[in-house]
Specification:
Elements lengths: L18 E5 L5 E6 H10 L3 E6 L6 E5 L1 H18 L5 E7 L4 H16 L3 E7 L8 H14 L4 E10 L2 E8 L3 H48 L1
Parallel strand pairs: 1-4, 5-6
Antiparallel strand pairs: 1-2, 3-4, 6-8, 7-8
């Protein structure tokens, strides 16, 4: 899919309207002025005149450093792309006659997916005559949903399609929130480590005056 590119705003002499509602470089409202006046004020400030709301009546233009504005906008877009996270659909598969150990392994795996902010698709694979007993599959999936309710909520109830029965469980926290919490925790851990390192380095210096005091006391006693 071709990315839709938003055109750059018109600047300086490219703004071809008789007047604009002018905003100063500090965000102050100058008012409606002829375009020639707006251009002159921008030149006197050694800045650019940028049309920020072309559809307004009259258009709104702001005096700013357009190069700096474009750079900051690009950096924000880059950061947004870097922080963008997409929820994935993870899958765990069961047999109708699954043993306890295998079931617990699948349940813990699903909990990990949900804690990471991903959805879980729980699927039961029916064999032979098991297809004629869908109620058993529903009971197993309901049990599974109840046991992981602390981590996710049923988004799509059990549905059967031939030999398969599926149920979708959504995480209680979206992936962006999970990532934000992880980043915050890493930052807190890093700050704690730095504080501990600083305290460890400061201890020898703090001990020195105490040692000197003990030495002086000993000398006084000797006299």
């Amino acid at each position: 899919m071709k990315e839709l590119r938003i055109p750059d705003p018109r600047t300086n002499d490219r703004i071809r309207v008789p007047e604009v509602r002018l905003v100063g470089p500090q965000g102050e409202q100058v008012g409606v002025v002829p375009i020639a006046v707006a251009l002159r004020l921008a030149q006197e400030a050694e800045l650019d005149l940028v049309e920020v709301a072309p559809d307004a009546k009259p258009p709104v233009a702001k005096i700013m450093d357009y190069g700096k504005f474009k750079y900051e906008a690009a950096q924000k877009a880059k950061e947004a792309r870097r922080n963008q996270v997409n929820t994935e659909l993870k899958e765990v598969r069961f047999r109708l006659k699954i043993d306890v150990h295998d079931y617990e392994t699948k349940r813990k795996r699903a909990e990990g997916f949900l804690l990471g902010g991903d959805k879980v698709k729980a699927m039961i694979l029916f064999r032979g005559r098991e297809q004629s007993r869908p109620e058993q599959g529903v009971r197993l999936l309901h049990k599974f949903a109840e046991e992981i309710a602390e981590f996710g909520v049923v988004e799509s109830r059990p549905t059967q399609d031939g030999r398969n029965m599926t149920m979708i469980i959504a995480p209680l926290k979206n992936k962006s929130d999970v990532k934000g919490e992880q980043n915050a925790k890493r930052a807190a851990d890093k700050a704690e480590r730095r504080a501990n390192e600083h305290a460890a380095k400061a201890k020898p210096d703090d001990a020195a005056p105490a040692a000197s005091k003990e030495s002086a006391t000993a000398e006084t006693a000797a006299e």
